[in-house]
Request: fold
Amino acid sequence: MTCGEVNEVLDLYLDGELEAERRPALEAHAGRCAACARQVEKRRALSGALRGAFDRSLEGAEPRGGERERTVEGMAKTARRRLVFPARLAAAAVIGVTVGLVAYAMGLSRATPEELEVAESLRGREARGAQIRQLRTEAAADLEFVRGAAEPEKRQDPAALVLNVAASTIARRLEKDLTPPPDPAAAKEKRVVVKNTVDGAAVEVVQMGDGRVTLVVPGRTIEAPSMAELQKRHGELCRKFGVQGREGAVRVGESVAATDLKGQLHLIWRTGIWDEDVQWEAARTWLSVRVPDAAEMEKRIRELRDRCKAASAPAAAPEVKIDLAALLAEVKGRSRRELEETRVRVEREMKRLESELEDLRELRGRAKGLRLFAESVAEPAKK
Reply:
């Protein structure tokens, strides 16, 4: 199939109306032709935008059964097949269709395509900001619950220690405060020292109380702010000399050195890098005095770990609605230069917001999983 043939049948393909025997040829061509692949994605995005636009425009119409869905689908197909101009103009036309349907009664039907495009970009920015605020609020509420669940326990209880440190590391990322207060004593204290000879080469790893790690191998001395960073930045070297482990628990070849749980949690808090293995080691220690049967204890650990892992998956971005009419009124009357400057600025801001949103989706999931862990370990204490 050629590029021209793809363009001729692309709308049929996206609408699921292309003959089954022709679909593999189109997909194979798009797989090796970057230009056609981009065109497929642009037209697919256009379809989604049209469907959303028409669906919003019919809100309040209350059609029966699947009538609304069928109406939206038919309107979207017809409109998209008439939009054959370049991507940016097509996007503006989609917005124009939306506004023409919903804003007619508002006196906004004369908005220019440029105004409509900028208003839509502003709506995207406002939506991302609202999603970020909501995820941040939800994560903070979960962390507050976690801290409350740990409070009744003794400070030396392994489960309480884990909950407090895990909540603190997540909170620091939420608050973008990743630098712990300086501790001159910790900077001088060697918490973990392990030495070994690997393939005839002398290797030494030292982790200080403030989390800093020094790796000494023949001809090189390397420093890193944490074990996690050492393995991330110098992974090939670590593999070559058999250096493994986490904060406070290090292996060089067959030699192992580690501090106690409290020391490991201290290092995790100092570096701000959470390691779930510590959480489950603490849970195992905590359950061992409550569940005498080892097999039953491991079963409970596995079940709880699976549930927490599922809960810790990155959270979905919440749905928010932003009033497009108000944004159109805001940009109405701006010059083309002002509109273009606004569009460029918003595009730049959107990249930052997208990155922040992805981080918060991860942190929201982790906070949710930690809350489940807190609820589970708190239950026996209440009985």
In short: The beta strands are 190-198, 201-208, 213-217, 220-224, 243-246, 249-252, 255-258. Confidence is low (pLDDT under 50) at residues 80-90, 97-109. The first strand starts at residue 190 and ends at 198. The chain has 15 helices and seven strands.
